Amino acid sequence: MIARHLAETLRNLARIFPVITLTGPWQSGKTTLARATFPEFDYVCLEIPEERRYAMDDPRGFLGRFKRPAVIDEAQYAPELFSYIQGLVDAPGEGEGVRFVLTGSQHFLLLERISQSLAGRVAVTHLLPFSLAEICARPHPDPEDFGGPLDPVSPPADTDLFEVLFRGFYPRIHDQDVAPEVWLRNYYETYIQRDVRSVLNVGDLDAFDRFVRLCAGRAGQVLNLSALAGDAGITHTTARRWLSVLETGFIVRRTPPHHRNFGKRLVKSPKLHFLDPGLLCYLLGVREPADLHHHAGRGAIFETFVFAELLKNRLHRDDHGTIYFWRDSRGREVDFVLEGRKGLIGIETKSSFTLASDAGRVLEQWGEMAGAACGGTCLVYGGDVQRMWKNAAIYPWYVL
Question: Residue 267: pLDDT above 90?
């Protein structure tokens, strides 16, 4: 079993909060992580019809059978439980520490119930598919160190960048050595049939599929929702609602522009990023790793990879800070901006294996405009050499 970095965060939170929620995309390893982190806890899954009926028909009896803390898997299927859980954790004489770990892949259904019944009593955590650091059994680099030399690490064994991007990071692909194109096709089709239909009244699933694939074609780009809706043949309101469903299902995330104005008019629309490069490859029609040598979406897929690794790094540290991008009216863009203790950190991505002599020019200009607010700049690329370029650090793709 590949160790998950979030496990330590879960154990720390379990000493503080009576309830922990663990959300994330379907098949990201939530159940495995919860049971491995808390092996002494009772366990029940509400996808089992008998358990779900018991929880809905007799919530007091359902919860009363647990004499130890319990993991309740897919807890959103019995929303009535949340009010009763509140009563249990608020009862006089209850000791400190976690009583319930609630998992679920339908993020917004869980959070809706939490906000109604468990606000202030629950720690919210998110588990995405494996990170590259987890697969390589090493820690993430500290984002506060970005912009300077990082500890040297070796690339993943017996693979290369295009294979990593093509396979993606969903656990089943790595645990069971399944062909990525087969597993991802079935994952995507099941996601639409299972999750989308349960949370959204989509009469035409073909239209939703077309919308998702159009989103894939806009990965890494500034989002024009009106144009996206027009291309998909749906209304602006429908496009906004469908995009929210993709976000709550941990398929995509909108990356906001950084708000600080350095004297230039800035782009105000968000960028669109997918959360797994393998799924994005599938949606873009990449059928084997070699296709990425000349694929038009290669840069966006690589940017997706870097974005997802940065996000996982933060979530594993229980850091829910926003990842931004920066772009001015002249089209100069820094792919990601992080707000750290030492200032703003600008991060650029290049999928090429070699870098042009001016590859870090935009980072240099951004750093000059940021002035004292700049805490460092770095460029992540498809090569394998770590070095400094003026004031920017150059990192190979596998250091994240």
Answer: no
357 shares a domain with 216: yes
Query: Do residues 235 and 204 make contact, with C-beta atoms less than 8 angstroms apart?
Result: no
Using CB atoms within 10 Å of the CB of residue 39, give its burial: 0 to 12 exposed, 13 to 18 middle, 19+ buried: exposed
Three-state DSSP class for residue 19:
strand
Tell me, yes or no, whether 98 and 232 share the same domain.
no
Structural domains counted in the chain: 2
- Are residues 151 and 69 part of one domain? no
CA dihedral (105, 106, 108, 112) positive or negative: negative
Q: Which amino acid is at 147?
A: G
AA identity, residue 255: T
Residue 388 lies in a domain: yes
Tokens for 387? 């070095």
Residue 207 covered by a domain: yes
pTM value > 0.90: yes
Host domain of residue 122: 6-126
Nearest-angstrom CA–CA distance, 209 and 283? 10
Quickly state the pLDDT bin for 328 (edges 50, 70, 90). Answer: confident
